[in-house]
Amino acid sequence: MKLFISSRVPEEIIKRLEGVDYSYNDSNVPMTKEEIIAGLQGKDALICPLSDKIDKEVIDAAKDLKLILNYGAGFDNIDIAYAREKGIVVCNAPAPSSAVSTAELAFTLMLAQARQLIRGEKDLREGGFHGWRPTYFLGQQLKGKTLGIFGMGNIGQNLAKRALAFDMKVIYNSRNRKEAIEELGATYVSFEELLKESDFISLHSAFVPELKHKFDADAFKAMKKSATFINAARGPLIDEQALADALKDGTIAGAALDVYEFEPKVTEDLLHLDNVTLAPHLGNATVEARLEMGNACVDNLEDFIAGKKPRNQVN
User: How confident is the model at residue 73 (pLDDT cuts 50, 70, 90)?
Assistant: First the structure.
């Protein structure tokens, strides 16, 4: 089994590959498609991050490829249908810590935007802080506010529990009702009611083509003018230019984003607005989550080598 790893991974994961014939792109700089194809020549397996697009062209060029191990719970970067057609097994790397870490990041974004933390820090660094003043960088507290969650999977449920602990009202819209979180105090509502009633809206849905631009100009117009919009799920769920326009003209008050429609590119207008907090896709960027994900990749690899069905096969 010859393995290619297209991005830097934690050292602990590399140590688990002792005895495996692998080559390694020990860098956080994304490889080009041509570089990935070159690295896959003569290789049976690939470990790649979510940012690597493994499409038909890559799959056709990798003549010996039998196994793709995605370093993450998602796998929309891989053409899994075509991989199946070519007899290539695709695995993801779910990790309980990933949902916790992403929920914590979403809550951090909500707090940072509510309390104007990023703008306040910038003002302090630039010499604008002259001591405590009654109206200096006033934000809003979360207690008593309504958090609307779109997508109540593991991440959404982790976020709901944290919001409820802050005495927030939690409402949600999801493909399926979640009785466990409703028993804790969350309320299921229609999509229209979610838009209308939420002080904060946080996205935690997986991306499927029918949800592209679910949050568009009309959706932003249906929200409260005082609302804050948070996306730590998938960029294409929103029309990013429509969001920028809504922030510029006061349709909504603020936003906090960790993912982007054309990632790693960010819509230019967003870069120049001071009512949006921007994070570089840090959702599950914790030591705990990334180690769990890496270990899941190696577990799947070991299953495959042993002739077993990998425990996280998705196609």
Answer: confident
